[in-house]
């Protein structure tokens, strides 16, 4: 679906959001990484997808950035990258062209009568009348608990990322300043994700810090040693940006997508953890199908919000 959208959205909106498919190397240094990379390869092949096993030398030939300490790697070409902010803008512009309206105000409640949502209440005291409500509030989804009297087991997980410069930002830069492949340290973490229009991403931390979104020195101390195990071309001087965000972490590791139990016209699409952009097209399509037809063309029963009642 992302591949289809990458053709469709730029034509509608004239927004290029940097969709690109590059090799992805899951690299092993020791036995734990070897086992993890092998397991990933078996799972993808069982799904009918292509995944290739490379020894260290073959991996370095594919990606000269790689350290000669890499013993082996699982190589795939099934995971595109993009600029998520630009994709969000493109998706909204396309929806706007078909009648969608954006209201930039904080929601503070839902007026409910006989298990039906009637209006969404906003911070300035105004309301929006509605036929259906979808809770797509990410790590803030639990704020709806007091509106609904229903426990929603999604909590924030803090994640920090570092970013390197864009190649054109330095005088001596060239295309060689951007990795030719994504690299993942399967032994102790650390990911390098090059993007066509955006800064290369170095990640990532995972912490339970409530709603704290303050960038910390911990991210540098955690991320840099792990990515530098993959390549010595990443230096502290190359880091230009540092962000901290909140991921919506579900209690059992799976998102909640569908109708909320006990309500006729309130739906939820939350808890995608760090995979929100990845699953956005399928989630949007599935929610639209559930609202309009009551069913989905893809089996997403494993994501049913009925699990909420048993958590």
How would the blueprint of this fold be written?
Layout: H1 2-13, E1 24-28, H2 31-46, E2 52-55, H3 56-62, E3 72-76, H4 84-97, E4 107-113, E5 116-122, E6 127-129, E7 133-135, H5 145-148, E8 154-164, E9 182-185, E10 191-193, E11 201-203, H6 217-230, E12 239-250, E13 256-259, E14 266-270, H7 276-293
Parallel strand pairs: 1-9, 7-14
Antiparallel strand pairs: 1-3, 2-3, 4-5, 5-6, 8-11, 8-12, 9-10, 10-11, 13-14
Helix pairs in contact: 1-4
How would you portray this structure in words?
The protein has 311 residues and is α+β, with helices and mostly antiparallel strands. The strands form three sheets. Strands 2-3-1-9-10-11-8-12 form an eight-stranded mixed beta sheet. Strands 4-5-6 form a three-stranded antiparallel beta sheet. The radius of gyration is 22 Å and the shape is elongated. A hairpin with a 5-residue loop joins β9 and β10. α1 crosses α4.
In short:
The chain is an alpha+beta fold and 311 residues long. 27% of the residues lie in helices and 24% in strands.
- H/E element string? HEHEHEHEEEEHEEEEHEEEH
N-to-C CA distance: 31 Å
How many individual β-strands?
14
As residue ranges, the low-confidence spans are: none
Beta-strand content: 15-25%
Kindly state the percentage of residues in helix: 25-40%
What composes the largest sheet? Answer: 8 strands, mixed
Question: What count of helical segments does DSSP give?
Answer: 7
- What's the average pLDDT? 94
């Amino acid at each position: 679906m992302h591949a289809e959208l990458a053709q469709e959205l730029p034509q509608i909106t004239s927004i290029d959001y940097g969709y690109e498919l590059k090799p992805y190397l899951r690299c092993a240094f020791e036995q734990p990484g070897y086992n993890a990379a092998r397991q990933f390869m078996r799972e993808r092949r069982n799904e009918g997808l292509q995944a290739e096993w490379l020894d260290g030398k073959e991996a370095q030939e594919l990606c000269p950035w790689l350290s000669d300490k890499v013993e082996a790697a699982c190589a795939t070409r099934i995971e595109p990258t993009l600029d998520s902010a630009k994709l969000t803008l493109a998706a909204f512009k396309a929806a706007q062209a078909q009648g969608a309206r954006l209201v930039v105000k904080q929601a503070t409640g839902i007026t409910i009568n006989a298990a039906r949502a009637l209006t969404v209440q906003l911070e300035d005291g105004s309301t929006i009348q509605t036929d259906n409500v979808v809770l797509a509030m990410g790590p803030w989804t639990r704020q709806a608990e007091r509106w609904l009297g229903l426990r929603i087991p999604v909590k924030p997980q803090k994640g920090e990322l570092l970013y390197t410069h864009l190649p054109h930002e330095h005088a001596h830069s060239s295309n060689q300043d951007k990795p030719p492949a994504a690299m993942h340290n399967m032994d102790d973490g650390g990911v390098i994700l090059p993007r066509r229009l955006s800064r290369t991403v170095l990640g990532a931390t995972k912490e339970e810090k409530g709603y704290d979104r303050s960038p910390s020195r911990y991210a540098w101390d955690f991320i840099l040693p792990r990515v530098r195990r993959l390549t010595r071309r990443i230096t502290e001087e190359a880091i230009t940006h540092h962000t901290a965000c909140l991921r919506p972490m579900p209690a059992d590791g799976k998102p909640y997508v569908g109708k909320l139990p006990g309500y006729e016209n309130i739906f939820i699409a939350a808890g995608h953890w760090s995979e929100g952009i990845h699953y956005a097209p399928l989630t949007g399509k599935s929610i639209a199908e559930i609202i309009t037809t009551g069913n989905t063309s893809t089996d997403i029963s494993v994501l049913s919000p009925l699990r909420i009642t048993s958590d």
